[in-house]
Amino acid sequence: MKILFFGQLVEMIGAKELLIEDMTDIDTLKAFLHQQFPLLAQSKYIIAVDQEMISDNRKLENHNIVALMPPFSGG
Amino acid sequence: MKILFFGQLVEMIGAKELLIEDMTDIDTLKAFLHQQFPLLAQSKYIIAVDQEMISDNRKLENHNIVALMPPFSGG
Amino acid sequence: MKERTPKNIFVQGAISSAFIADSIQKHSTKTDIGGHSIFLGQVRADEIEGKKVVAIEYTAYEEMALQKMHEIRETVFAEYPLTCMHVYHSLGKVAAGEICLFVFTSSAHRKAATEACSVLVERIKAELPVWGAEILEDETHQWKVNQ
Amino acid sequence: MKERTPKNIFVQGAISSAFIADSIQKHSTKTDIGGHSIFLGQVRADEIEGKKVVAIEYTAYEEMALQKMHEIRETVFAEYPLTCMHVYHSLGKVAAGEICLFVFTSSAHRKAATEACSVLVERIKAELPVWGAEILEDETHQWKVNQ
Q1: Which chains share 3+ C-beta pairs under 8 angstroms with C?
Q2: What's the rounded mean pLDDT across residues C107-113?
């Protein structure tokens, strides 16, 4: 599945986008990313799956697009 | 003293300005004007003396400028 | 409170969008501003007893209005942390669809500009000795009533 | 509720005063409008640890932001009797003193336009996935934080 990063997370990860397959749910994905990018674990971000903001764990499939977004600062 | 009229009062009086001497106070002036212009007696207006809005009676002198103003409708 | 001399707020006829743009543009050098709030009054083509309003003709007790506006300006400046405040009101004829009032406030953070702008518009309409005659399509007119 | 398709709100770089003037001018044909409320966000040259902000560079999750803006637009249209609503937000670099946000509401009577404009600005800042990096004079940057 496609993982999108925004704002300061792009600098932290070093990419705007990663392709990671077979993550069964959000918690698994987060654990994986936090292990790969320890700074991410200390960062504030919210998650959207297919553009819908979610707060709890949720099953994922490979066609989902997951976005990790730091606090908004538009305007 | 100078009496100024504004808005619809100009049409009612037929003048923007009248010179009337020796009116001792506001009540005397109003009585005089209401007699001369009976429609004025039925109109809503407020009075300013030398640009200061007043609500009670008040002594007048010939150097005062008295303004009769219908409800404001700017903007 | 800083002393400010009464500024003229009156312009003959409608306020053009070019004038508004120019006024906005002038603030680009004031880099402590974070937000601008603008209110524009536009003449509505209301229908009155089957006849359309084609314009409003404004008159004012100018001297008193400028003095009153000066007082309002001082009070609002004292109450809100504003960088800038500009007010323009038309006199004479303004056609339906044209702008007759332009209130423009600026501040470092948006809240002050937004609140001050609303307060100014309310006070201008309630407290300035200005009168609008609505000119109808048959060339008769009727006096505008606020609210 | 009337269906409206998501409009693009994003413009590359600063929003010019000419663009704003043009947008105002276009409303002169809508003679049922009595009041316009406009909010403009301007980039502040804040000082951060002794270094001046020279610009903000904006990025967004564009697709999601447009969808979210569409929802906000529908909600605000349903709640306030507006004639028009326009929102523009910059992407890319906007220098200090330049305009990065333009929110424009119009209604027959001023209250709806004024209130809707404030609500829109608050919701845009809180709910749109947009990020601003403050570019400092030494070419380093720091990420903007709202409120």
Answers
A1: B, D
A2: 97
Read off the pLDDT of residues C34-76 as tens digits, 9 standing for 90 and up: 999 999 999 999 999 999 999 999 999 999 999 999 999 999 9
Percent with pLDDT over 70 in chain C: 96
Which CATH number fits the domain that encloses residue D123? 3.90.1170.40
Amino acid at D118: S
Please indicate whether, in this complex, the C-beta atoms of C130 and B48 are within 8 angstroms of each other. no
**Which residues of A are less than 8 Å from D41 in CB distance?**
75
Given a contact cutoff of 8 angstroms between Cβ atoms, the answer to whether B4 and B66 are in contact is: yes
Check pLDDT > 70 for residue D83.
Answer: yes
**What's the pTM value of the predicted model, to 2 decimals?**
0.95
* ipTM of predicted complex: 0.95
Question: Do the beta carbons of residue C42 and residue C102 sit within 8 Å?
Answer: no
Residue C56 in any domain: the answer is: yes
Please answer yes or no on whether D24 and C97 come within 8 Å at the CB atom: no
* Residue D4 domain-assigned (yes or no): no
The boundaries of the domain holding residue C93 are 10-143
Residue C5 in any domain: the answer is no
D30 vs C contacts (CB less than 8 Å): 97
Cα(C21)–Cα(B7) distance, rounded to whole angstroms? 32
Residue C2 lies in a domain: no
Number of domains present in the structure of chain C: 1
Looking at A1-75, list the stretches that DSSP marks H as alpha helix, in order from N- to C-terminal side: 8-13, 26-36, 38-41
> Is the pLDDT assigned to residue D4 strictly greater than 60?
no
Interface test with C, best of D22, D29, D30, D44 (most C CBs within 10 A): D44
The Cα-based distances of C135 to B6, C12, C144, D58 in angstroms read: 17, 17, 10, 48
Looking at beta carbons, which residues of chain C come within 8 Å of B73? 130-132, 143-146
Domains of chain B: 2-69 (3.10.20.30)
Say if residue A37's pLDDT is above 60.
Answer: yes
Closest Cα in chain B, distance from residue C31 (Å): 30
Q: Give C137's contacts in chain D (Cβ within 8 Å).
A: none
